[in-house]
Each structure stands twice: as C-alpha cells, then as structure tokens.
Amino acid sequence: MDPVLADDLSRLPDLLQSARDFAAEEVTGIAERPVARPGGRPGPVPLPSAGIGAEGALARFAERWAPGFSGSAGPRYLGFVTGGATPAAVTGDWLTSVYDQNVSGGGDSFATALERETLGWLRELFGLGGEYGGAFVTGATVSNTVGLAVAREWLGERLGVDVSREGAAALGPVDVLSGSPHSSVTKALSVLGIGRDRLRTVPLLPGGREAVDVDALAAALESLGGRPAIVVANAGTVNTVDFDDLRAVAALKERYDFWLHVDAAFGGFAALSPAYAHLVDGLDAADSVCVDLHKWLNVPYDAAVQFTRRQDLQVRVHHNASPYLGLPSGEPDFLHLTPENSRRLRALPAWFSLMAYGRDGHREIVERNVALARTLGERLSETAESVLVAPVRLNVVCFTLAERPTRERVHAMADAIAAGGETFVTPTVLHGTHALRAAFSNWRTEGADVERVVDAVLAGAARAEP
C-alpha cells in the first residue's frame, strides 16, 4: 500500500474528526459568509506526483478553495430554487459516503429496502397511491427524462412499436403539449430522440398567468385526430409558481388519448400544507411525476425522485440485460428503472430528514418560506425602485426595476446584488419583461433575512447601469 495512504488509514478516526471540526466551523458561519462569490478564482496547479495526505489536502483546500465557495446553503441564497441541507440530511449524507453503497440491486445490503421505504414515505407525502413505482435520481432533469422515456414507450405501445428495440424514429413524429414547460423538458426530448421542436406550447390563461388554458389544450388534442400524445403539466412554474389545473387536465383523458406527465419539481411540496394542497389536487391522476428533493425537502445535492404508474414500461426502457446483473422480475432492482447502473444511496439523507422532522417539520419549512416570500413581495412593492411583475403565489417573488427594465439594466442589477454578497437572485424573462426571481426554499431563512434582502435589492437597483 502507498505509504501516504497507509498512514491515512491508520489515522482515519483523527482525519474524520479534523474534517468534522472544519465542517462545523464552516456551517456555523454560513449565515454570514458572502452569499455569492463571483470572480477572483485561483489558477490551476499541476497534479502532484507525491500526495500530501488527507490532512494536507484539507489544509490546502481550506487555503485555496473554501474561501471562494458561495453561501448557497445559507438563508439568503434565493437564486434558482435552491434548498439547503437540514442537520439530519447532512448526517445522512455523511453516512452515505461512509457506507458507500451501490444501490443497484438488493441482494447484498439493506440499502435497497431503505430506498423503497423512503419512496413509500414520499408517495404518502405527495398523495400518490401504492400503484406508483419510483426511484431516486440525480435531479429534476433526469426525473423528467425518465418520465418522458416511459411516456415514449407508452406511445409505442399505443402505436404498435417497441421503441426500446426499434428506436424513437419508428414512432414517427411525436406530439408533446405543454403550457409553460421547464427548459429541462426540451433537454429531455433532445436526449430521448423525440426532438426539441416536437414540443408544442399551448396558450395560457389570461391575466399574466403561466397556467395552461385547459380549453386550448383540449383544442390542441382535438387537432391531432386521435393520435396519442404526451401532455406535460406543471405543478409550480419557475417564474411565478403557477399551477395547471391538474384535475381538469386529467379529465381530458376521457376524450383524448395522452400520457400525462406532471413536473412538480418543487411545487409538489404544496401538498404538505392544508393551505396550499389544493394547488396539487389531481397529482394522483398523473401517469408520471417529477419531484426534486434538493429544493424544498432541503437535502444535499443531488437528489430527486420520479414516480410512474407503468413500471413495466419503465423496466422495458431501462433494464440492463446482463447475466451478472440478473433479469428484472417481481419488484425490479433499481438499476432496471433509471439510466444509472451505479447508484449512490441518495435516499439516506431524505430518510434522515423525514425521520428527524416528519411531515410537520417539513410543512413548517414550506409555510414559513411562503410567508417570507409574501413579506418580500409586499416590501418591494412599497419601494419606488422596484415593482412586482406577478403576484406572489407561493415561494417565488418575481420583480423588476420600476423604471426602464431593459435587459442590460436588470442584469446589471443582478450583478450588483451578487457582488454585494448579501443575497443572490437570478434573472428571467416573464411575458417579455426582464425581471429577477427570489426563490425561498431554505430551511434557515427567517424574517430578519428578508429585511437584509430588501436592503440588498435596493442597493443593487441604485448601482444598475442607467
């Protein structure tokens, strides 16, 4: 054994304690570290020939790289839709690395059973029945890709084509309909060989909504002349957290032949709160569902889940036909359900957080985040520098400059906010208006953070280019 490696092995408990002490110090200061760290990156160094050991590597990391890591796990990182990591989730994530399980099959470890238990808890949390099979994946993009891959196989079933063997080209043109699809949907269509251009956007409800007009969707389905299609419904859009009427969309299946995939990446967590659960009414009528966990469940990156009623088709798409892996039978191993054969135990951080805080604890996070988003919306509306471009429906505040919200000025404002280090928001375009998004999904965020965000936004507006 390499002598440096052997020395690390002999001192492993001490090394883990050093890592624990360093991590504890970093976590303790997360609320006050700069939220964003744009620019000033160190240059690369040559690969060392002789290693310096884990303790030396930790010291080198602490010196060169740690100061430039963002405070994205902290309470005022409002970019994209980014959760943090609850204490229990961090515990589970550390143990994920300690045990280093490959959750592809269940013959040699309890890990597969733990993932199935966690999936069962999540099904219950989102109001899905036991007919839904599921699996952990890396994020919403892969979750959407898996769901749409199963939808593609369903289309083949309807048209008499075995897509998994003959290829997507055997289907001919595929019709995919959606009102406000996330960009990951078009990426998935590209990966699956369906094609980005096959996505047909359907008119939205009036009044600045991002929810699909169900009558317009019905008309679009009618125009297909009975050809089966895929409908992607949204449970929480990224700009305004708008929700399609899932129950009304699902009711169209009585007249038209389509697969209903629901992208509930973060909006699905509305199910936790009695005040907002009505927004996801009808989720249990979907054929496949995407939910991201490193958003509002606040587990570490990367973790998401996918669910589908047709696990038989999911196996047909993803099964790995190899003698040493075994063929899928009964309850299929996870390697037959997702693109990955090698699978990290992503379920463990979620299991820890759900066990530690339960439904009630995670509901409190959701409801607090929504209340804080509404407070920020009210505070920004009271200023002369900014205006809301949409009502605050759930946990995202979409706002822009009160005067001349050009792309250049809005992006300059975003850059100025990031450079200030107090908070981080991301630019977007809503119905032709350049705007910024502040997404609340972190378990640490409190009322005092909102006031600091307001001050940072006003300072950024003042520094925006004229």
Question: What are the SSEs and their pairings?
Answer:
Blueprint: H1 3-10, H2 12-28, H3 53-64, H4 87-99, H5 111-125, E1 133-137, H6 140-159, H7 163-166, E2 176-178, H8 183-191, E3 199-201, H9 214-222, E4 229-234, H10 246-251, E5 258-263, E6 288-292, E7 304-308, H11 311-318, H12 347-381, E8 386-388, E9 396-401, H13 407-420, E10 426-430, E11 433-439, H14 447-463
Parallel strand pairs: 2-3, 2-4, 4-5, 5-6
Antiparallel strand pairs: 1-7, 6-7, 8-9, 9-11, 10-11
Helix pairs in contact: 4-12, 5-12, 6-8, 6-11, 12-14, 13-14
Class from secondary-structure proportions: alpha/beta
Q: How many structural domains?
A: 3
The CATH homologous superfamily of the largest domain is termed Type I PLP-dependent aspartate aminotransferase-like (Major domain)
Strand content: 5-15%
The radius of gyration is 24 Å
CATH topology (fold) name of the largest domain: Aspartate Aminotransferase, domain 2
Figure out the total of helices: 14
Q: List low-confidence stretches.
A: none
Could you tell me how far the N terminus lies from the C terminus, measured between alpha carbons in angstroms? 63 Å
Strand order of the largest sheet: 1-7-6-5-4-2-3
Shape: globular
Question: What is the helix fraction of residues, given as a range?
Answer: 40-55%
**Biggest beta sheet summary:** 7 strands, mixed
Q: pLDDT average, as an integer?
A: 95
Oligomer: single chain
CATH class of the largest domain equals: Alpha Beta
